[in-house]
Amino acid sequence: MTATEHAQELARVAAAAAADKLAATITGIDVSVQLPLTDVFVIVSASNERQVGAIVDEIEEQVRRAGAKVLRREGTREGRWVLLDFGDIVVHAFHEDERHFYDLERLWRDCPPLDLGVLGQDQAAGAGARRSETD
């Protein structure tokens, strides 16, 4: 079984909102087989706490407009790792240092990645550099 279409759509909305606020990295992981509590993890990061906060605010607003509301929010005071639980999706918004330390992508590597249709600023820059090398 894979993530529901509804969860995938909410994840894409969250990812687009993060991209609008210039998130450094944006990753989707389909955890539906391994974790019965949610279908998708959306993992985003930024280089400072203020930007993490802006990304979190935009994600919450855009996902609310898409018809879902946040059920639980944790970590907003510190702005280093903010968790937004929308039920079908869980968004992890990290400061870059925490993202590298906790490395959720490695912890959930047995789960398939989910194409969210957008890349973070760092990922886009890396993809552009790789294209230049092959040209």
Description:
This protein has 135 residues and is an alpha+beta fold. The mean pLDDT is 93. A 5-stranded mixed β-sheet has the order 1-2-5-4-3. It is globular. It has helices at residues 5-20, 49-65, 96-102, 104-107, 121-134, and strands spanning 25-30, 40-46, 72-74, 81-85, 89-95. Helix 1 (5-20) crosses helix 2 (49-65).
Radius of gyration: 14 Å
Instruction: State the oligomer.
Output: single chain
Give the termini distance in whole angstroms.
39 Å
Strands of the largest sheet, in order across it?
Answer: 1-2-5-4-3
Biggest beta sheet summary:
5 strands, mixed
Could you list the spans in which at least 5 consecutive residues all have pLDDT below 50? Answer: none
| Beta fraction | 15-25%
The coarse overall form would be globular
What is the H/E string? HEEHEEEHHH
Task: Let me know the average pLDDT.
Answer: 93
Counted by DSSP, the helix tally is 5
- Coarse structural class: alpha+beta
Measured as a percent range, the helix fraction is 40-55%
Number of strands: 5
From the structure above, extract its key features.
5 helices, 135 residues, single chain, globular, alpha+beta, 5-stranded mixed beta sheet
Summarize the structure.
With 135 residues, this protein is of the alpha+beta class. The protein is 43% helix and 21% strand.
